[in-house]
Amino acid sequence: MREPPYRIELKPYGRALVELARRRGEVLCLSGDLTKQTEVDLFQAEFPDRFIHGGMAEANMMSMAGALARCGHIPFVHTFGVFATRRPFDQIANAIAYPNLPVRIIGFMPGVSTPGGPSHQAIDDVALMRALPNMTVVDVADAVETRQVVPAIADVPGPVYVRLKRGEIPVIFDDDHVLRLDRASVVLAGTDVALFASGMMLAAALAASRALGSHGLSVSVINVPVIKPLDAAAVLAAAAGARLVVTAENHSIVGGLGSAVAEVIAEAGLGRPLRRVGLRDTFAEGSLDAPYLFGKYGLSASAIVETIWSGLGRAGPTPAAPAAGAESGEYSPV
Amino acid sequence: MRVSDPGAVWAVPDPRELALRIRLRAVRMVAPQGFGYLGQALSSAEQVAAVFASARPGVDRMVCSPGHYIIGPFAAAAELGLIDVSGYGQNGSAFEAIGTERSPVVDYTCGSLGQGLSAALGFALADRFRGSDARIFTMVSDGELEEGQVWEAALFAAHHRLDRLTVLLDANNSQVDGPVDSITTLEPIAAKWSAFGWHVWDLDGHDVSALAAALAAAGASRGQPSVLVCRTSTRHGLDCLPPDADGHFITLTPELAAAAVRELTGKLEALDA
Q1: Predicted confidence (pLDDT) per residue in B115-170, tens digit
Q2: Which residue, among A171, A174, A205, A176, has the nearest Cα to A188 in the 3D structure?
């Protein structure tokens, strides 16, 4: 694993999809009027005949994708996470999830990664997709995983929802990192706290663990790229060895990673205190920039530090987490 | 068994007779429960018969957008000897009263309304990718036109010139809360589709000859998808139904069922004579 500051990549998803499409003729690309924004302008340029403009008509686009999948295609459907999940939920349920078809729904701009306000902030997409039988739900953490997630999901027999950050993507993992859809992985080992993170919160979780480490707390960080089906064995193994379990997700605390982890440890009768870092059952707001929102809504490294510090009942002032901000060309962690 | 399955075989010598048989079969399917989607079978019987008469077995596709209409394709397939529908609507039966993923015969159906036309577009695109000229016969109901998705699909089909696509729009003026025109003004239906870029026929949906002619013309249409606006009634062809019979969900007492079987059997015998 690399150390911060993390360098950034642009369009790792868009390039990975083109690479997959070169090898796999079944791959089709559908876009809901957000072609550049979802990086599939690259696909459109190379494979115009396999690119379908769905227009601003997500319901129709999802139902069509289901029928295309019935005919042997592997449709990758692209729009923002909000429009990919809220608006066509019934179509995804009936035309894709229920028939268990290999449609890949790619929702960009997770959580408060966009300052575009509640209409554009996918804070419930994981919860919505996780509730659907047959659906696999993925929230990858960096450019290395983003590159790998495309071939990794190509042959999943059923539907997959992937939420992806837009724009500058950090490179956190080494090149030899292997994304596995059936594994959550311990990326930092620790003994006091099990800190589960998905997607954009991994960088913040790592920063929080380091900050607490210098104050005598040993915090393991478990990267959970696949929220459904959840790697329950890894969750239980990490939670069993800790005094406190914490989840961190760029999403509502209702229905996402925190809920999934809670279900597993509660059903196992593990009895560990749990704290969930995420949007606290609230809509966010529009702003000038996303870091402001991550700070205001408790999704920062310092919010994780504070949650762990108070969750363990530690006395004294809360340790400081590294502040957000980065040089040009570097990833600005939240 | 699905209409598009390779190896599917059937023949419809007389669509008029098949429509009558669909009505009789539908009555017998609904009678054990005493209620069901009989009105949908009555309004669409000629359309279903016309599709089976026009479709090339094992090549063309059939989409039944409103899952509540699946009784019609089931009844037709049973009359053509393609399936055994005994147990329809009963607990554990794969012949569910509202069409599901388990439903045979059609290539797509869904109980959540307004979605079938989009699925038909997906089939049309897939057929275009593989260079097939398969037609896609798509049953849509007028009530479904209240769903926005139908119009999303209508725009897409015309823009992409999906001319292998033919919609049979059952304009029976019936939805759950009452006559469609008392709830939402859809007219002028034909002009709306025309304005969306479709080739439109506006016809008596119980006229088998008119349906056959329009389906043949639609098949020859190039560059435009086609829609047949079929003017129908949920009580058509069954005179014994009371005038206030609920078109969406008909109650069929044993006495009424017996009268319906008598009436339709008599009509069938007269046709055969």
Answers
A1: 999 999 999 999 999 999 999 999 999 999 999 999 999 999 999 999 999 999 99
A2: A205
Q: What is the ipTM of this complex?
A: 0.95
Burial of B129 (0-12, 13-18, 19+ CB in 10 A): middle
Q: Where in chain A is the domain with CATH 3.40.50.970?
A: 8-170
User: How far apart are alpha carbons A135 and A137 in whole angstroms?
Assistant: 6
- Beta strands A8-10 and A168-170 are antiparallel
> Could you please report the per-residue DSSP string of B79-142?
HTTS---TTTTSTT-SS-SS--TT--BSSEEESSTT-HHHHHHHHHHHHHHTT----EEEEEEG
d(CA A283, CA B272): 68
Confidence of residue B272 (pLDDT cuts 50, 70, 90): confident
- Identify the architecture of domain A185-310 in CATH: 3-Layer(aba) Sandwich (3.40)
CATH 3.40.50.920 in chain A is located at: 185-310
d(CA A3, CA A77): 34
Distance CA A226, CA A137 (A): 6
Distance CA B205, CA B170 (A): 7
Q: Which residues of A touch B101 (CB under 8 A)?
A: 98-99
Q: Are A175 and A272 in contact (CB under 8 A)?
A: no
For residue A73, which residues of chain B lie inside 8 Å, CB to CB? 126, 129
Reported as a single tens digit per residue, the pLDDT across B209-235 is: 999 999 999 999 999 999 999 999 999
Residue type, A79: T
What residues of chain A lie within 8 A of the CB of B98, using their CB? none
Entry pTM: 0.96
**Cross-chain Cβ contact B122/A90 below 8 Å:** no
pLDDT of residue B218: 98
Half-sphere exposure at residue B264, Cβ-oriented, CA atoms within 13 angstroms: 25
Q: Is A58 a catalytic residue?
A: yes
- Residue B46 structure tokens: 């000629």
The fourth-level CATH superfamily of domain A8-170 is: Thiamin diphosphate (ThDP)-binding fold, Pyr/PP domains (3.40.50.970)
What are the structural domains, with CATH classification, of chain B? 15-272 (3.40.50.970)
pLDDT in tens, B19-54: 999 999 999 999 999 999 999 999 999 999 999 999
Which positions in chain B have a beta carbon within 8 angstroms of at least one beta carbon in chain A?
101, 107-108, 110-112, 115, 118-123, 125-127, 129-130, 148-149, 152-153, 155-156
Contact indicator for B173, B56 with CB cutoff of 8 Å: no
